[in-house]
């Protein structure tokens, strides 16, 4: 059968696919009275389709058709792969074929016009049967892609028509692997896989908002690039929902990832993509496809948790669980409950029983990640309460301890009242405080009852808000009791990472305490206010409150001693934040000594001081001292806990930071990862402390040479900070941007790094306390990124601005080194050697060893470039020494470049 007659048979099939089988013969005779062969072909297709959609197999029903198609397509692809190499399409040249699909082949291509390099993927239409229909779908895909602008959807770059009239389109080239392979290769845990899945959902939801259903979501159409960015591909059979009468594809899908209504030939809605995403999540979590996981005779796939040890395949189960960082039994428990319910809701047979949208599906996944009740499960009291307790177990434990402390205080007060009449008023006041406190707590716990808020989830923030209302409603005439509870509520708000809400509560409590005569109570509130202002990056104000608190705690009681130790701790932290290192260290050491006497060296209060003290030492290039300081506490806690235990979180990040500063970057990365996991279990992934540790992880990854992951991690920190402008109390925001830019530049994403550095410059102009040296450094970093991006003229201009703003030997040497590498890249080796020699002279013997090596490596590269190998040799010998000081990535880049030039010239 020729192509034209085949197209007619396909058109008849499309017209009658949904008609009753009893009407086929009559309607075929009416539509095509003059060609029995076309009628027979159409009838064969209709019968094969009806067999497939009722549970049979199309390959069994029409083997000749399938075999013929496969043979023709295979021969065409082989011929095209040979004939098309080197072909020009618009500004692009075809390099090699990298894939093929139902409509055609995908080629790796390079731009040969326009004055810049670019790699793209070009999709070429396949010639042959039903070309008109294929071209129509192909053009529809081009139109769909043009309307989708999302960072996780491969975007359309260009398009056109070949010389013989076939359309082509150029797409963003994604050099990566499928989502499943990437997750398994990186042994991502369940939470990390769920977060990536949320990214996929966001991209699909973007398409749905533009009335586009993908219809072919599967792992091979979701890639993760080398930069860790997820990209959704291939809208070749997507359907535009606003074109009800204009199908973009007919019964084309991948059976293993098709929804039941697709197989049945029913109308397509967004529920098709919800089902496909459910299949994808099933495989992400278990490593098995739902259809593979079914036992004989099962109509529906088993729950994900039920597959972890299915069929007794212990070795297979062990491998699948290990790729998720778990044992099979642990994986089973991790999937039971929420995740089982979420996946199975997405895989319901009837579309109306699934999630109403991809957004709802993603929201339930997010609720699970945050330990909140998911909509896929029944909202029973025990389930909702269990979720609440799991999210806030430490806060609830602290609350319980507080209630016990209040009860103990009440007992002591009553005893004192009986022992001495002089203490009777104190006892009565403490009793009243306890009574009022219990009264307020009863009101708060009533608010926690889901029966009071049917259909709603009660959060810690809701309970605190209710507590504030109860305090003002019931304690308006009791200033002492009101101040005590306002202070407690303010501390809780600060602990939840919302210092802007904590501050007014604490200021109100302070006003009440100042009006009274209890100096120690006033000191306590001032310390709470100091911690809150520290979170708001107001170090001067925080330090002032700590100093006032210290002065107020001037008696000989144990309580006063505890308050003075806490005041020293706060003061030491803020002095370090203000770069007043020499003043910070003695305050922290005094706090540590006092707390060791009061609580012992195996206590949380003592460890709380060790952490900032170790950070202080590490920042002063005394990392070995910091590790020695932490070792006794670290060994004690390691002896009684397992890796990942939340108690290790007290010391993990500090120890990791010290390891980083001592040059043990790989060890630092491992501990930062454990610290991050502990922080997520305690605080969740929407808390400033979590993102502070994530930022430290990104820096250690960068120092360890893991540039792509470092850029991804630091990008997450920036995204969170941007989305939470009032909660950016991690590092100074411009320092986060600096770290992100360095990682982007080092991972080959220099253009993005330039954008981030320019944003950093703008922020530094708006931040108080930014030094002239920091503002100048921004121009140096910008020049390096511009050089890496090949923008030499821009780099030269940035360096000129840098030199106009700096003085001092070290700063001058840094600029000269960068100008040397710029000259080398531009082929001006003579200029390069003069600058490099001056940099070596400026750094002399007083600079740090790593900085001296940086200058020497630059000079060695220059001498090698102009052929003076004898002058370069002693410098190369120094760079080749087995033991080198810890080098920053930019310094390592210079050393590696010099050694590479030496090897090349001597090969």
Automatic annotation (TrEMBL):
Sequence intervals crossing the membrane: 394-415
Region (Disordered) residue spans: 291-323
This protein's UniProt keywords: ATP-binding, Kinase, Membrane, Nucleotide-binding, Transferase, Transmembrane, Transmembrane helix
Location of the Protein kinase domain: 92-369
Composition bias type Basic and acidic residues, residue spans: 291-301
GO molecular function annotation: kinase activity
Pfam families reported in the protein's UniProt record: Pkinase, TPR_12
Highest taxon listed in the record's lineage: Bacteria
Binding-site residues for ATP, renumbered to this chain: 123
Name by which UniProt lists this protein: Protein kinase
